[in-house]
Design brief:
Layout (H helix, E strand, L loop, with lengths): L2 H4 L10 H18 L6 H10 L5 H19 L2 H12 L18 E3 L5 E4 L3 H20 L2 H5 L5 H5 L1
Antiparallel strand pairs: 1-2
Length: about 160
C-alpha cells in the first residue's frame, strides 16, 4: 500500500480543548527554549492547568507562544499570520520587530557565545512565508494529493 492509499485510512483523533491545550503546551515550552526560555515542561503544565504561580519572567515567553497557537486555532492564518507573529513575539522582540517579516540575520547563541541556531537568510524569508501559506491553503482545501503525485516522496511530506 502506498501513502496515497494509506493516508485516508488513518483514524481521526478527537481534537478537544484539553488535547489542544496539552499539545500547544508541549510546543510552546520547547519553542520558547529555542529563544532562551528556561521553563521546564512539567512546571509549565502545572502553571497552565493547575494554576501554579511562578515569576512572570519565567512563564511570559511560553505564555505568548501558547496565546499565538490559540489565536491561530480560531483565526484564518492567511490574512493574520503577522498578527500571530506579533502575539508570539511580545516578550521576545522589540516592538519594531513584532508582526513584521524579518529583514536581518538572526541566530541564537549559547551561554558561552557559541552559535546554536542560525535562522534562514533574510533574503528568503518573505518567499518562504508565501510558500508556507500556499502549502497550508493546499492542505486546508484537501488538495495535498496533488503534491503526492508531484515531486515529493512520502518522507518529504511527513517530515
Amino acid at each position: 500500500m502506498n501513502l496515497q492509499e494509506a493516508f485516508p485510512k488513518v483514524p481521526q483523533v478527537e481534537f478537544t480543548t484539553d488535547v489542544f491545550g496539552f499539545y500547544a503546551s508541549v510546543s510552546a515550552v520547547y519553542s520558547s527554549k529555542i529563544k532562551g526560555g528556561e521553563i521546564e515542561f512539567d512546571s509549565y503544565l502545572k502553571h497552565k492547568f493547575h494554576q501554579v504561580s511562578y515569576r512572570p519572567d519565567y512563564t511570559k515567553k511560553t505564555n505568548d507562544l501558547f496565546a499565538a497557537y490559540a489565536f491561530a486555532l480560531n483565526t484564518p492564518l492567511q490574512p493574520h499570520v503577522l498578527k500571530a507573529h506579533a502575539i508570539l513575539s511580545e516578550h521576545m522582540l522589540a516592538a519594531s520587530g513584532r508582526g513584521r517579516i524579518r529583514t536581518k540575520i538572526e541566530m541564537i547563541l549559547d551561554k558561552e557565545g557559541r552559535i546554536e541556531y542560525v535562522a534562514a537568510p533574510p533574503a528568503i524569508v518573505e518567499g518562504g512565508m508565501k510558500k508556507l501559506l500556499s502549502d497550508v491553503n493546499l492542505l486546508l482545501k484537501g488538495t495535498i494529493i496533488i503534491l503526492l503525485n508531484a515531486r515529493f516522496c512520502p518522507f518529504d511530506i511527513c517530515y
